[in-house]
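To close the chapter, one final illustration. This time we ask the reader to focus less on the individual chains and more on the assembly as a whole: which components sit near each other, and how the overall shape emerges from the parts.
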Amino acid sequence: MRSMPLTPRGEAQFVNAIASAIAGARFGAVQALAAWPVLLGRVMFYLLILVVLAALWDKVASEQVSPLAGMLPTGGLAVYVGVTEWVTLSVVAIQQRLEDDIRNGALEPYLLRPKSYLLQRVAPATGETMVRLAVLGAAGLAALAMSGRPLPAPGVLLALLLLGTMGCVLGMLLYVLVGLAAFWMRRVLPAMLIVQKLSFLLGGLVAPISLYPDWLYGFAKVTPFGAQLYWVGVQVLTPSAQLFWIGIGWQILWCVVLSALCALVWRAGLRKALREGL
Amino acid sequence: MSQVIFVQDLRKAYRRIKRQHGPFGALKGLFSPDYLTHDAVSGVSFTVSEGERVAIIGPNGAGKSTTLKMLSGVLQPSSGTVEVLGLTPWRQRRALAYGIGVVFGQRSQLWAELPARDAFGLLRRIYDQDAEVFRRRLGELTDRFGLADILDQPVRQLSLGQRMRCEITASLLHGPKLLFLDEPTIGLDITAKAAIRDFIREQSREVGQTVLLTSHDTRDIELVCERVIVINEGRIVVDQSVAELRRRFLDRKVVTIRSAAPEVAVDFPGVTRRASEPHTTILEVDTARVRIEQVIAMALAHGGIDDVAIEDPPMEEVIHAIYAAHASR
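The assembled structure is written out below.
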């Protein structure tokens, strides 16, 4: 039987993979914009959270209702919460898509294409996340301006954009890991709850981890959850170039570690699926 | 003609953990599991040549899906040899993907909120297709499938028939040599089914594309394929042409007589009258016991005949007979 040459060769494969990823991200962005009512709902939810949490932290700061108040920055934690929620709400719930694909056998059509399944799934989700990041960021800034609070300096905004984007990437990698657990768990909700709660507690979603006891703060700030949220939010509490580089450093490190973990777990899951079926 | 698919002594056994009863059963199963082994495919061998259109059919759980999964590379066999387009599917899955197209009748590869044109554009990137080649192929398929008016509508607004035309287009854009079709006409109306079948058959004839189809609709098999492989209990029980299949399994003909009289009485051993309407008499003739000309002669003797049609039994009956024969062994 003759063998038919089917694949592009050498470095062209890498270039093609990048082109596919960009096309996928663009596709995801267009998809997110096409579903604008869903996007609008998310913006409303974000603004609602901001109103409630800003009111809470403003009260704590202004009325000294807690011994914590003395440790808080002037103006409370409204902007900090705005930033951490901005990152959290921007990340697409990709774990649900992965679970659905693995549980329902919808993974197979993706496997029958010449690109990695993760690339086909993560690239559009990244595009969607970037659209959310832009829209929620604009909504957050508009809300901040309307509330009469001072806007962060342009340098801080740029730092937030970079750290926030990386925070979303880390969030997505954590969700991918959770989603891939479906190869073994079928339903990933238990794993998702753990990651969400760790993100809430160790990431400092509603209060900075610097308020924790030293031992816990020292631990939380080096976790991927701290890299995802705290190191972004800290820029509006105490903006500094030094903290920016420390934050980016932790984010890059965890990005590499989580990417490697995702690749390993995917390979193990794929081997299982090829051996046992879905 | 070169071989596109070569399968020899293909086997697949699934090993599943046996569920333990009792409150600690799940815990026990975790630490010392008992396994059950199920042979889904047990020594299947066949080849498919370039340009052939082959149906792989069988009752639910017969092993046809497992066989197709191993052919497409999403399942690793327990043993045996498979080569598709000269490649080993589960080892060279991504390389093989450039040469195959897959249509799942019950799964969409399009995105509901976006027009099919956007999905096609993304697929072009996934298959590393040259922009000019892509434009030409999309133009050809758009003309042939009449997609011009629906390409820019969100997929959720399309009818099922329109969506399926887009699904098939998506699977053909990269010019696959081999097309896997899994229930391609499920849920479609008669007109849409006919259009899909015509298209698949003509496309295969024109470009020499090999087609492997699974369907529970026997009309898909009759109208698209020239060869049928029937799998039951993990083994091939029949592998022959559609025409031979009919002849081999049923020594029967269906004779439809249209007459001026309300009915034509034909009383022969081996002739069974089927439910008929006035002026139309439908007879099932066992040709091993009585010749067709005897039946026609007797009908003529009983009065005027306006028209006579002699047909093979419907494919559905043939398939049913195969399954029944195998089950009774």
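The first strand of chain B starts at residue 3 and ends at 17. The mean pLDDT of chain B is 86. With these observations in hand, you are ready for the problems at the end of the chapter.
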